[in-house]
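How it folds
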Amino acid sequence: MKRNTATLGAAVIVPTLVLGPVFSILLLLGPTKLAAADCGPVSSVSVDAGTKVAGYTQEQLKNAASIMGAGRALNLSANGQMIAVMVALGESGLRVLDNGDAAGPDSRGLFQQRGNGAWGSYEDRMTPTKSATNFIKALQGVAGWELLEPTIAANKVQRNADPYHYQKYWPEAVKIVQALSTSKFSLQGSECGIPGQSGAGNDYPWKNSPTWLQAGATAASTSPLGMYYRECVDFALWRVNQQMGSTSAPFRFLNGNFRPDGQGLGSALTWKAGWDAKGWPTGRAPKVGAVVWYAPGAGGADPNFGHVGVVKEVKANGTYVEEGYNGNPSPDDHNYYTRTVGNPVPSAFLYLPTQEETK
């Protein structure tokens, strides 16, 4: 499983070597604290008798407005308001329910909050604004919640058995919050944890662009992301941008701005250090969209510079399908590839802030 990334290393190794001691310090210190994400404005809400959203009654919309109003009072971002509405959709269908279920017979209200004292009195749980306020305060107490995938952030508050229970309610929550907001906004391209598009096959925008071997190590062979065209790192960084909602110039994440300390993300050799410096999570479990990181020599990767790919599919037997560029020997080295890989082979999986290790 040879991964020929020596050409990439030759192109970017000079700054990497100069900054070597800095990388060592970062690895010893461990990940930095997650910075707060810019996840949209604090959204004002407007709803009256004429407000309509297809598929929802006035009662449901008024309850959504109460949730958003509670969020505004607590300076909650638009992303947070969407999460709160998403949870209420998933728990009660945006209705103030005076009954629980088998898992929680004492659950009540919009958020099906339990009668264990953590969510206030029965009256609190049955009052939309008060129950929403208590949910939002708990959400804001979750470290780095805005960087998490919405359903994961919600689960850390609700603690239901399935952490992905709320995932299917996200599109409707977005629709409702945008419809009830007094101003229009978009979360695309921000660092907040919103579901992105993982792509389909070889959708790399620069698949026909010249490599640095063909055009020389110049601007002619450099992609808008600051990496050389058709290298493993350029494809992986394209996928990162794509999944975070940044699919056209100006791209959100570049070689030169990814790390908060101003250093370049660099060759495949330094990607794990780059993730650590940014404070993004890493782990040992494959997850669709995660960057696969091979240390030098691992799994047949280049002995000097390693390799990066992207998880395209995870199979039931623990293997996964990896996709990427520049992972095959010449003459097919700077083209798209897929291969099935055993889970223990890579050195680490580098997760986007919307992803968490699940096993």
Observations:
- DSSP finds eleven helices and six strands in the chain.
- Strands lie at 282-283, 291-294, 307-314, 320-325, 336-341, 348-350.
